[in-house]
Amino acid sequence: MLLTITTTAKPATDLGRLLRKHPDRVQAFEQSFGTAWVFYPEAADDRCTAALLLEVDTARLARSHSRLSGDASIKQYVNDRPYAASSLLAVALGKVFSTARSGVSQERPELAAAAMPLEIALPAVPCKGGPELVRDLFEPLGWRVEAEAVPLPGFGTDSRHVRVRLTGEVRLADALSHLYVLLPVLDDAKHYWVDIGEVDKLVRSGGDWLAGHPRRGLITRRYLAHRRSYERAAITRLAELSEAAEAEEEAPVEEEVPSAAEDVEKSLPLHRIRIAAVVEALGAAGAASVLDLGCGSGKLLTALLADARFTRVTGVDVSSRALDLAERELRLDRMPERRRRRLTLIQGSVVYRDKRFAGYDAAVLMEVVEHLDPGRLPAMERVVFGEARPRTVVVTTPNAEYNARYGMEEHQMRHADHRFEWDRARFAEWAAAVAGRYGYRLRIEGVGASDPEAGTPTQMGVFDRD
Predict the structure, then answer these.
(1) Where are the domains of the chain?
(2) Which top CATH class is 262-464?
(3) Going by DSSP bridges, is the β-strand pair 458-464/392-398 parallel, antiparallel, or unpaired?
(4) Above 50 in pLDDT, residue 259?
(5) In angstroms, rounded to a whole number, what is the distance separating the alpha carbons of residues 161 and 85?
């Protein structure tokens, strides 16, 4: 099976820099089901083409399938998998071009961020839905689509294969993500085991464009192999991602509104004071491994990595865009290897049980709970305090009583995405109830300059268990 990517941007050979595959070499990448080859049929300043050729070992693939499914029929050996661009090509593409898919380039960051003229050709794609479905899936993403049914030799004149050519001005990372998600969708078959981890892959790869796609339901259903529970989880997370993206467009009031009180954060921005307080609480608890839930752009992660006491640091966010920002904020592509080994970034939600959240000394919810609908707080509590159950949990949230010191009107919130903001009594009531239900001791502290009547701008709860 073959995929070619062509650009006429000048110099066109910059395509090799983005793909991190040199045009002068043929490179082989072993896969569990065969070998992927990358080479350049043409490489000039005005036109450059990179080709991904996947040689599928049908015998190896069939033996693996037989062990998992018990199906040892001849159809596992005689099929279109070596010839047509299916989910196997998507897997190879995801691994071989992983750096390009991330949209990060240490050498040419401006090149990775820019759209460029691209032409993508796939000689044969199995498509349950024909050429019309190819147009339905790719045209909303800005592609001009040429798709025609083609008979695949040996599979009859009525084969469901389509020749596809896509052209458009698209960022390379986005183009690769479109292919990674949509090739298995066209085929409506995945040639490997599908589990809950596929939800994370789908949201991470398609989150920036899939939430608003007119065929989102079909894409989600097919990508997740018609597993209804996985589909529901993906749709919910995509909806959360859409809400988070809308919220990011609004600037936080907290950082913009000037203070009317003389003692309001003159020397340091509040977020720095907050981060220092959280780090101090984690250090006092003796935590070595920390889970930052709702890590955003990675400011707390930066502070934790700068402190040698924290040997394992994981950032979690529902937004793939936030994780991309965190990678840039942390300069992940330039980070020393020793520090890089201490860090993990994962996409996930605090309201869904996730086995990856277990095994940490401490978890942090820094300015997170106020972004949740009140009806989802019990789910968050079960996930964090009941399932993940770290030894220490640190929660910070705005103190609504202090808002007047920022010159804000009554009931005005500091951020457009806040669902609520608690006064000190309400926060203490909630925190005490959670501590009692899940067996934690509670300590509440103020963060920031204190006002005799309003208290501090941020309130922090530190939950410890025996």
Answers:
(1) 2-193, 262-464
(2) alpha beta
(3) antiparallel
(4) no
(5) 9
